[in-house]
Target: Putative membrane protein
Amino acid sequence: MKFLLKMILSAIAVLVLAEILPGVNVDSYVSALIVAVLLAVLNAVVKPLLVILTLPVTIVTLGLFLLVINAAIILIADHFVSGFGVNGWLWALIFSVLLSVFQSILYSILKKDKS
Model:
């Protein structure tokens, strides 16, 4: 149940960011939900592999290379979901940073409601 609620909150965050950012577009609510689920899967499977493979670069850049990895994961999701589009690396980077911020805010609100 908690996973489903987090996916719905992530889909809402994707929809809000698609409205705010001109370089990101989502066609429908279903596409936003698919993007949220795919991002969860990619973050669980692909991101740890990329972090391990790029560990020296990540250490040298003091962790800032993780932003590039997040943008790459957004672009991978763009490739697989037909109703989701991101216009380049810069928009993927901005989208990933803002998505992380929105998710943190939404998840903290979710935790406050349970307390």
Remarks:
- The chain has a mean pLDDT of 92.
